[in-house]
Amino acid sequence: MLSILFSMFLFSLAGAITPGPVNLVAASVGASAGFTRALPHVSGASLSYAAIVWLMGSGLHRVLLAHPHITHLLPYAGAAYLLYLATRIARAPVETGLSQPPARASGVWQGVLTQSLNPKAWLFAMSGVSLFVADAPDAATLLLVFCGMSGVVCFLSVGTWAVLGQWISQWLASPVRQRRFNRLMALMLALTVVTMLWAA
What we know:
- The protein is built from 8 helices and no strands.
- It has 200 residues and is mostly helical.
- Helix 2 (21-33) packs across helix 7 and helix 4 (68-90) runs antiparallel to helix 8.
- The protein is globular, with a radius of gyration of 18 Å.
- The chain starts with a helix and ends with a helix.
């Protein structure tokens, strides 16, 4: 059992810590609003991912395997939302004082939406369920364990990106640097959309 848990952990970490739209938004919010204000986004994204894993393990992965055209629609829905987020980040007003409340703090629902419309999350969850849960004799128990581990690892990984964003916030005290950072984050988010659609 320990070897399965360790494999689940490594798999979850590989999916959650690598750059992607959820992590880029977390870094952006962490940089502009601080780690505490990024926590709703981190929590929403983590709860959403655990729910995605549960849905896949509850039979949705079989539906998607039987009807692959459904999975081809997800990148386009995700692309539209991510481009909307990229536009908001690029056009966000810069802060001239650290005492002002940041205009771009992200909430729980934005975290949920960003993760729910992230094709990488669905594909990783489908792969993980196929790998660790689908044909196991104790599938129900393994699914609960995998959901819990996925949620915790996602929280820690996305939270790490928010902390990294906060670490560079002092460097972003200059409005010019803030504007450049916002545009860089928006560009990177838009590039994830391009790569996502290229693979679709």
